[in-house]
Every structure is written in structure tokens, then in C-alpha cells.
Here is the input.
Amino acid sequence: IKLERLRFYAHHGVMEQERRVGNDFEVTIEVWYPFEKALESDNLKDTLNYATLYAIVEREMAVPSELLERVAGRIIETVKNEIPEVTAGVLSISKLHPPFKCDMPNGSATVTVKW
Here is the structure.
């Protein structure tokens, strides 16, 4: 399952103003799990409900952190604990408007973690 470009307004950043004012973030998460039964059954109990995966990301994005790496770590820890069927994954978190003194019309600062 892959959830792409989930948008959140959150309060992550090293600078106090970033944590106070907040910023726009984008999250993409892809997880691997055994889904062979679902290929034939058409039954939700035989797969991973992507609404559960979204709820984990949403919950962890709401907890302020200084580092995007820590946010990623919390999301991964929670996925592993709450969905033990997940065997691997890739997670990217992008800060869409980092506090740089340059024009970044389509740029971002991104952390990507594979596990």
C-alpha cells in the first residue's frame, strides 16, 4: 500500500518560530505486507486497511518535533507496533516551505527513511 502526498499543517522545526507558527508538510508512505489472500477474497480482513495507516500518520504528524527524522521514527515505530504484518516500508516527509533565504516555488526539504 502506498499513500502519496498526504498534506498536513504541523509544528515541526528546530527554530521556535517554526514550532509556534507551523508549516505545510507532505508525507508519502509505502508499506509491504502479505496480501495474497486479498487478491482472491475481496475481503478487507485479508488486507491492510489503508485508513489505519493514514490514521497513524495523521496522529504522529500532530505531535510537534524539532527534527523530521524524529517524526519519521515515531511513524515507523507506530506502524510496526500497530500493524505487525508490515514487513518493510519507505517513508518521506517534506517541509514544503523551509526557512531558507531563496525562492523555492516547487521545492521542499525532505527526509526519506527505508526500513
Notes: The mean pLDDT is 92. The longest strand covers residues 23-32. Strands lie at 2-10, 23-32, 88-95, 109-114.
